[in-house]
Amino acid sequence: MNFYIILLTFLLLIICFVILIILSPIIDHLFDVDEIDNMDNISMYSIIITHIILLGVLVLGINYFVINKYIKYFKIVKHEKYIKLLMDLVLTLTLVGLQKNLTTKLKYITSIHPVRV
């Protein structure tokens, strides 16, 4: 029975990765900025906050529409809380890591921060 749950968890992880591989470049391309140096701080902060909010909505959508329905369909009740926690953690870290434009903007903002200069 434990092998069955582990196999279903890995299958769910693969499904979530495929969804991320499809949707992540689309979201990253929405927030593409050619020249970061010419932007003022307010517009850059608003783009970063909007980007993070959209990523959060995507994670919540995947959690509700994919993970919860998958767990209910396969009747995984024994370790449901831990599987959801694992999937949310992996999804969030992977999704933020796939956002090249977001990481570039965050690195730029942290390099010009007054405490760092």
Beta-strand percentage? Answer: under 5%
Counting DSSP E segments of at least 2 residues, the number of strands comes to 0
Task: Please state the average pLDDT score.
Answer: 87
Which stretches are poorly predicted, pLDDT < 50 over at least 5 residues? none
Report the oligomer: single chain
Task: Describe, in plain words, how this protein is organized in 3D.
The chain has helices spanning 2-30, 41-73, 80-97, 100-111. The protein has one domain. It contains four helices and no strands. The chain is 79% helix and 0% strand. It is mainly alpha-helical.
Give me some keywords for this one.
4 helices, single chain, 117 residues, elongated, mainly alpha
Walk me through the topology:
Layout: H1 2-30, H2 41-73, H3 80-97, H4 100-111
Helix pairs in contact: 1-2, 1-3, 2-3, 2-4
Summarize the structure.
The chain has 117 residues and is mainly alpha-helical.
